TrEMBL record:
Functional note: Removes the phosphate from trehalose 6-phosphate to produce free trehalose. Trehalose accumulation in plant may improve abiotic stress tolerance.
Documented EC number(s): 3.1.3.12
GO MF term list: trehalose-phosphatase activity
Keyword Heme: no
Reaction(s) this enzyme catalyzes, per UniProt: alpha,alpha-trehalose 6-phosphate + H2O = alpha,alpha-trehalose + phosphate
Family: Belongs to the trehalose phosphatase family.
Species lineage: Eukaryota, Viridiplantae, Streptophyta, Embryophyta, Tracheophyta
Species whose genome carries this gene: Punica granatum
Protein name listed in UniProt: Trehalose 6-phosphate phosphatase
Stored Gene3D superfamilies: HAD superfamily/HAD-like
A Gene Ontology biological process term: trehalose biosynthetic process
Length: 271
């Protein structure tokens, strides 16, 4: 797989897009403890030194930055609804100037309201956890007894009936609530490519690595563009629009290291 990707990227600018949970950090029971290893941080840091790199997460931007703790990267939180991205002007980009893009900002009061209601509604279900990700909410059931999953989903459904402008999606043992706007990780990827100046460029190779259903929107975008590569992180074969797969975050780390090494060698060879 690596050789195929390296050969596809010859003469092209690789732009790296990385999901966080399950891709850079292993899945753990407590979402607040999903730390990334120092080795992975180093691999991401080196990746960002060699290629434009963005973290695209369901978490809110501040939270995912709190886990990654690296400058020089683009951060897109809340499934791409909270982007601190590069300025469109090359001059400003060089000066490190960034711009905020938040297409769902009008939903903030509604999301806050629903967060409070869900906290109240789910507090009697042991193990249930409601997490706010600024423009989105996550209702976790990883630590809920399987017999109670239906009850929890029903509580969420009842609440959302009153909020038709919000929609429900599913992730890894999590129900995700977000504004029903046409915006997802795929749109965020496209937005970032445009912001980086690669809107209609043939000599760019976006690479997106992710493990969850919301990452499929980004894999689809790449397929539809006929440009770039999706890499799904999964231990088991699953239906996906990604072209390649890695089994777990440690393999993602090895892949990033190899890519950096390959880039260094190609720079050396060209001198
Ligand atoms: O887009 P991502 O960066 O992958 O974020 C998706 C969700 O990830 C987190 O939940 C998942 O990881 C947790 C920690 O390993 C795990 O406990 C949980 O079961 C997983 O669903 C995060 O907590 C969510 O808010 C994100 O939406």
């Amino acid at each position: 797989m690596f050789e195929q990707i390296a050969s596809a990227s010859k003469g092209k600018q690789v732009v790296m897009f990385l999901d966080y949970d399950g891709t850079l950090s292993p899945i753990v029971q407590d979402p607040d403890q999903a730390f990334m290893s120092d080795e992975m941080r180093e691999a991401v840091k080196e990746t960002a030194r060699h290629f434009p790199t963005a973290i695209v997460s369901g978490r809110c931007r501040d939270k995912v930055y709190g886990f990654v703790r690296l400058g020089g990267l683009i951060y897109a939180g809340s499934h791409g609804m909270d982007i601190r991205g590069p300025s469109r002007s090359r001059k400003e980009q060089k000066g490190g100037k960034s711009v905020l893009f938040q297409p769902a900002s009008e939903f903030l009061p509604m999301i806050d309201e629903v967060y409070k209601i869900l906290l109240e509604r789910t507090k009697s279900i042991p193990g249930a956890k409601v997490e706010t990700n600024k423009f989105c909410l996550s209702v976790h059931f990883r630590c809920v007894d399987e017999k109670k999953w239906v009850d929890l989903a029903e509580q969420v459904r009842i609440v959302l009936k009153e909020y038709p402008k919000l929609k429900l999606t599913h992730g890894r043992k999590v129900l995700e609530i977000r504004p029903a706007i046409k915006w997802d990780k795929g749109k965020a990827l496209e937005f970032l490519l445009n912001s980086l100046g690669y809107a209609n460029s043939d000599d760019v190779l976006p690479v997106y690595i992710g493990d969850d259903r919301t990452d499929e929107d980004a894999f689809k975008l790449l397929k539809d563009r006929g440009q770039g590569l999706g890499i799904v992180v999964s231990k088991v074969p699953k239906e996906t629009r990604a072209s390649y797969s890695l089994q777990e975050p440690s393999e993602v780390m090895d892949f990033l290291r190899r890519l950096v090494e390959w880039k260094r060698n190609s720079i050396r060879a060209s001198i």
